[in-house]
Give the backbone structure.
Amino acid sequence: MDGSVSVIGTGQMGSALARSFLATGHSVTVWNRSLSKCESLRGAGASVAASPAEAASSSQTIVVCVLDYSVADPILRAPDVTVSLKGKTLVQLSTGTAEDARNASRWASVEGIDYLDGAIFGPPGEEGCRIFCSGRRDIFERSRALLAGAHGESLHVGENISDANTLDEAVLIAYEGILFSFLQAAAFCDAEGLPLETLESMATWLHDRYGPHVADALASARSRTFEVSEETPLSIWTAAIAQHVRFAREARIDVTFAEALLRMARKAMGAGLADREFPAAYEAFRSP
């Protein structure tokens, strides 16, 4: 790699990427629809392209980080930009779905562009940041050090071009689910006058007590073997979730989250899984 990289999109993440590349000694060109958003990067040593075609022409590696693929695709598929991308490496770090990644990969293949799809977790270049990438491993290896920056980490998560976007969605919904569940718990406490500090004091215990169950549940989902439970079968868990709904109603707080859990549990029960372990509820998520 010749050490040159162009960044298309200089929002919060795009700017952080550009600064990470500058910090590791790369020659960086940036472009943004609002060129004024590039000025601080110019001051940091980046070149500012007048157009996306100029940005694509300036480097061997082009990193795209805009809102989503609906914004990125018209930019990249403009004829002058596409011509400038031929024979180069394009790393797509905009937010999208698995199908977005597949469509972009098919287009890149036809146009003779080496393509990686990815997702960013944490401020680029900083300690703890991870950039997930999927696609051909040889393309990834050429870009690994660039994407990791001085203190972050870049990971190849699969040859299927959709793998990074899939993992992005999976990690985020797990994280959001944890936060929402604690916020629901906080609403329970607040509605009945129990200080939130009391719940907060239990957070570490909850993590230590129930954290290992996540690995067990994922192992069951992976094998799709849900043993008959002699202790707490899905039917008992479903009754407990129904109690959450009743509690929320009596406390006059929102029941949406608890009702969603109950719908999924009852769906699994309806599939004949009432006597199985709680992870059997996984089957309810596998169909519309």
Q: What stands out?
A: The longest helix spans residues 163-191. The chain has two domains: 4-160, 167-285. The beta strands are 4-8, 27-31, 47-48, 61-64, 89-92, 114-121, 130-134, 153-158.
